[in-house]
Amino acid sequence: MAPMGIRLSPLGVAVFCLLGLGVIYHLYAGVISSRIAAFTSKRTVNLRDLLALSVEAAVQGGREVKRVREENTLEEKTKGKTKEGASEKLTQGDLNSHRKMYYLIKNTYPYVQVNSEEHDETDNELGVWNRDIPADILKIVEVGREVPADSITIWIDPLDATQEYTENLLKYVTTMVCVAVDGKPVIGVIHKPFTGYTAWALVGHGSNMKPRTTYNMNPPNVIVSRSHAGKVKGFIEEAFGNTTVILPAGGAGYKVLALLDPLDEDIEKADMYIHVTFIKKWDICAGNALLTALGGHMTTLKGEEIDYSGAAGNTGGLLASVKVDHQDLVDKLPAWNSPDKH
Asked: Which of 33, 60, 217, 304 is the most buried (most CB within 10 A)?
């Protein structure tokens, strides 16, 4: 057992044998752990399946949003202040929708990162996706691309436009799911619970939505947040003139739908969407995916692409458009030093 030319006592032989066993153990453990890591890293998710799941999650959340509003059991609370100083509302509709959406996705793909606007400490909902793929998705997306599970980040907004929800301004209310791969938005779902319509897109494959045939830039109709329409007015007029029509509206999902061929008569028609203050990624990711799939753009006010991995906040403002020269719009915008960056 001893190396050639070396005499060992019985105790030395025993020590030498133990050291050899230790080396073998560590080599074996290293091989096993590397194989486990390789297996985990090869886990993939089909994007067509994930699109269908996202649609189902948004619809199930929307049912809860609608039920709570119709039963008038909102149990409204204030969970804090927005960056603009407005009260940030929380209702039972937000929480019930969150539970349905979050756990449906997590129970189906427990190894995928899911970020939601809401959080609660209740037990896991037991819902699991039935793996049915709607006919309109099958028609447009014939085969789904497989992507690594660890490249996926899902953003869900269980109730967009909560303030308007409490005011019974229900046309603005949506539920949304977005799937980002390596930080780029590839799946967007925006569901309107009170009309039952669901807009969806898978970048590179298609969408059940389409842009309008024409957009007017002389002057444009610009849709903005109701919460700070006054603050953004001067910024927009400096860029596009004081005859620009400013459309205050609630909900980031609604504002993106206003850029597209209308789902229903209560959606206004806008030529671009501008937001100048801090906004969360679950508010904008689904709309970004929809616009990208239709050849449009959603960027910061400086024209930078938004990264949908990492932190939840976007501090660079927002410019969204479709079927127009987006860079030309960016170039017309005046300098904007957002207080959210300081």
From this structure: 60
Question: For strand 77-81 and strand 87-90, is the pairing parallel, antiparallel, or unpaired?
Answer: antiparallel
Report the binding-site residues for Mg(2+). Answer: 117, 157, 159-160, 283
Sign of CA dihedral 224, 226, 228, 232: positive
With a CB cutoff of 8 Å and minimum separation 6, the contacts of 113 are: 152, 153, 154
Label residue 40 by pLDDT band (50, 70, 90).
very low
Q: Helices then strands (H, E): number in the chain?
A: 9, 17
Comparing C-alpha atoms, which of 55, 335, 92 is closest to residue 199? 55
Q: What are phi and psi of 87, to 5 degrees?
A: -65, 135
CA distance 131 to 280: 30
Which tokens go with 241?
């003139």
Q: Do the Cβ atoms of 250 and 276 come closer than 8 Å?
A: no
Q: What is the pTM of this model?
A: 0.85
**CA-based R_g, the chain, Å:** 25
Q: How far apart are CA 292 and CA 327, in angstroms?
A: 15
Instruction: Give the contacts of 287 (CB within 8 A, at least 6 positions apart).
Output: 176, 188, 190, 252, 253, 255, 256, 298, 320
Binding residues: 117, 157, 159-160, 283
pLDDT tens for 218-250 read 999 999 999 877 789 999 999 999 999 999 999
